[in-house]
Amino acid sequence: MFEYRGFLLDSVRHMQSIDEIKKLIDAIAVLKFNKFHWHLTDDQGWRFESESFPELNAAAVRPYSDFGKQYIDEPYGRVYTKAEMREIVSYCAERGIEVIPEFDMPGHTSSLLSAYPGLACGGKEVKIKTHQGIFKDILCPANEKTYEIVFGILDEFLEVFPGRYIHIGGDETPHTQWESCPDCRKKMKELGITGFAEYQNVFMNRIIDYLEGRGRHCIVWNDTAKGKNLDKRAIIQYWKEHNKPSADFINSGGKAILSPFSYCYLDYDYEITPLNRVYSLKTVLPGLTEEGKKNILGVEATLWTEYIDDITRLEKLAFPRLIAVSKAALGENKKPYKEFLLDIPEIKNQLGDIAFADEKTWTESRLAMIAGWLKFVKRNYSGEYIKEQIL
Ligand SMILES: [Zn+2]
After folding, report:
1. Looking at residue 94, what is its pLDDT?
2. For the whole model, what pTM was predicted?
């Protein structure tokens, strides 16, 4: 059994009510998950109520939503109040679950930058985003004001979330604006750094150092392992597969959590990630030494909500696949898949009135998988999204 058995919920792209979250917490507690990773900040909204930085509360609202084929022409979003977040923390604690909040940076920060444009390279004005994607507007690590505000926000996170871990993101960080920022170039020269992956980690390491100094440990997405200088006190969350730098980080003493996207990203349809595939999750990576294998702390399933705006759909995507992830986290996914299927009805009974996907959709063939990917591409890539990625 792994010490880290996690479940991520994205409450930015689409929110869930406190009661809906509690229902999910009840279910993951039955499955013996012990970490609730709560994704609270991103390009499309800011969900953490701040007293020190009240402009952030306005950055919770996007003017409209345009996720793939779903266009909704009305303002969306609010922050979770500190009282609500504390309620979730104590609800989880009563069930043996630690809440790990995520403040994603230096990328995925359009909502923060919309409130504090001075923190982007060149003080560029940034709008909160209304669709999915990877955006070039990111924090400028050469600006001291960036750290002042980020540390101030983190201080508030620490007050609300008492657990050991804080997730600080680090994924999907295009370096375009750093390349053309005179302050960033000057900073890199001063530091004697030529690579942008290393430059990103100068930023990450400063945040890690700040939080370590306050008795917390940081989790970061494994994109950061591309820079060889990532602080070994950080734990990488492996989501991108075939990533040699991650294996190097782990083999040289770094710790990791496994969330390979083609097994653990439960927002993908069953056609793309069928239950049998999730159940076959291996808890090692290619390229790990015997010593390296000992540095895997656990497994985490994720539910990103760009395309999930109702709780029944969310529950159906999660169940029964979350049961399969829990088996891997508990080291119990060794029995044949067909026997595992026989156990599901009894587990379903223990989970109360959680919605399950129709059994006919659980196990798919390779052909269905190809059709599923075509459907995925057609649905997700709107004109606005493609324009953003190219320009
Ligand atoms: Zn800059």
Report:
1. 98
2. 0.95
